[in-house]
Amino acid sequence: MAPRTNEQFEQIRAESKTKILVAALELFAIDGYHNTSISKIAKHAGISKGLMYNYFASKEQLLKEVVILSLEDAKKMSEQLLQNLEEISPTEALRLSLELFFQMLIENKTLWKLTFSLAMQISNMPSVTAVISKMFEDILQQFEMVLQLNGYSDYNIEAKLLAAHLDGIALHFLIFEKTYPLEEVKNKLIANYCK
Amino acid sequence: MAPRTNEQFEQIRAESKTKILVAALELFAIDGYHNTSISKIAKHAGISKGLMYNYFASKEQLLKEVVILSLEDAKKMSEQLLQNLEEISPTEALRLSLELFFQMLIENKTLWKLTFSLAMQISNMPSVTAVISKMFEDILQQFEMVLQLNGYSDYNIEAKLLAAHLDGIALHFLIFEKTYPLEEVKNKLIANYCK
Amino acid sequence: MAPRTNEQFEQIRAESKTKILVAALELFAIDGYHNTSISKIAKHAGISKGLMYNYFASKEQLLKEVVILSLEDAKKMSEQLLQNLEEISPTEALRLSLELFFQMLIENKTLWKLTFSLAMQISNMPSVTAVISKMFEDILQQFEMVLQLNGYSDYNIEAKLLAAHLDGIALHFLIFEKTYPLEEVKNKLIANYCK
Amino acid sequence: MAPRTNEQFEQIRAESKTKILVAALELFAIDGYHNTSISKIAKHAGISKGLMYNYFASKEQLLKEVVILSLEDAKKMSEQLLQNLEEISPTEALRLSLELFFQMLIENKTLWKLTFSLAMQISNMPSVTAVISKMFEDILQQFEMVLQLNGYSDYNIEAKLLAAHLDGIALHFLIFEKTYPLEEVKNKLIANYCK
DNA sequence: AATGAATGAGCCTTCATTCAT
DNA sequence: TATGAATGAAGGCTCATTCAT
After folding, report:
1. Ordered domains of chain B (ranges, CATH)
2. DSSP class of D121
3. Nearest nucleotide (C1') to the CA of residue B61?
């Protein structure tokens, strides 16, 4: 066989890396960062323990990249909304924003669980914290804009309140899972905000 | 010489136990449960590693008692409110409840940090989870009552919304600490709820 | 009250010591030496951990004295037999010796268990081993004498065989306990030796 | 470089595992299970402490495998006898059985020591006990058969007596080692049984 | 004589990380 | 690129022993 080209190597690398990241995300979110060993991740990803260190300098670095990757995904989703924002009424935009949040919450429970568990736990992992903070600011800005469009005078502080509200709901939902009446809470919240 | 009296032993025990509980609470809250080793706790408390096991059967049991102790403190505070609840107007009661929450949040940052960090991390520690869940239910009931008195028809689901709102605010406050405009958020929240 | 006399102190000491020895024997025999902690022994004896060190320099020393005490008891029993040995026929003496052995085995299962478990385990505890060896020699001499009286020419080596036979039976009985047909084995053995 | 082939890994594993098993057998037999720490075993085997857990799930599992391995060796030896059993006279078969026992005792002192020391100490380790019991039953059956062929009417109970006799001799030999007249005892025993 | 709180060495075990191949 | 055997520090926990009272 002809030797692999650089592109082929590059692709193999990318595939392996992705496999590892996906496996790590799943395990971190379900079992928590500390309860997930490199061994488990390697097995789950179908690769060897040693290979992991070929792509990530340490377990902490892997965590950081998991978070980055996940948040990028989330951002992509939310940007879809923004594209159409100008074509619809402000109220509708707000409603859509909220609907989007709940949709993402349900569809990415794993990621949310991970994010929350990290948020409270990694004062000693600044690089990871920074990534999470950055994303939070982005979301806040979006909310400010949408609330401003909806005529909220205190949109600055109201955005913070809304963000807190949503994160609080997410937190409770993730803790109580099946017993939490997410649908009712969501409807009530939207009703309250979009009147 | 004669051995110590029972009272003397009791006092020594109480002091040591408290020392350990306090040290554990601080470290658990700052570094998280998994990042806090028994060694660290012992050093922080100024005792030997082995002594911990004289008072707590395991690290998990220590955590449980830390949580219980902290929640008892919190409960005492909140009960102060309930005493006067019937003498004041419903609106005032709601305002007081919210004020109380923020006061407790500020005064017991450590406990809140611990609670949140635990909430996402200890699905496999039923005994601890149970204690936290119990407290959450208690708070929820209080909110339901106060909201009902304030004429909220959907007081059931509104209580859940309020609880989420408060926990969300607490979460953000604990993450961003000094940069979080807690006072403004608090005033706005109270204004929104007590109109 | 008048101060205690020396005799009273002496008696208290003796009682405490005995309590500890008895407790230790029971626990050592049931759970094994290594699985029995000083704490357990103290609790079982109804005294404090510290007091034990008032009477025994170490756990190993305690073990040694337990063994000595137990073997002395055993010796007393066997000496009862010897007293009457001259009044009965040699065959009867042999039968009685064997009967005595089985009786002691059944009545002192605890001690036997302990002895066996020690015998194989304490090459690194010479002081204890010495005591056990000494007793074994004593027993062997008795057997030699009785076998000689019964006309065994090779009484020297036959005594060793007999001792081994009895210890083997004891070993199996202690391992299999209820399922071991001790009575049948005993009758057959006696029948074989006393014909 | 290319990773090792499966065969290479297999061989490395086999070698390490054997090193550990051999080291463990020796130390368990000499010092007893409880007095032998994983650290000691690792040092004795010339490997790191952690590596043991790459091959054995726990110290108890290691013990179990040590016992199994040893008993397999023993079984192989005894099966050599059975092959020729039908070609020789019953008396000769019995004599051979006994000779074999003594040969195995001398050649596998370590294993015997281990077996005895375990027999009295591991009532709380069912998995290990089961293996040992199984082997004992096998041996008993063999004895029953051979004794029956030799015309013993009570071969059932006589087999138990014989097994006890042999184990008793082994026990004494292992305790007193060099000072025990094993050869004389063996000859006398065979003489007694094969007349 | 008696107590039990306190110590600290040592135990079994886990796991991130390295390295020879 | 890829493997997994090997390491060693660290973790939770036990327990014989000491010591102030």
Report:
1. 1-56 (1.10.10.60), 59-193 (1.10.357.10)
2. T
3. F12
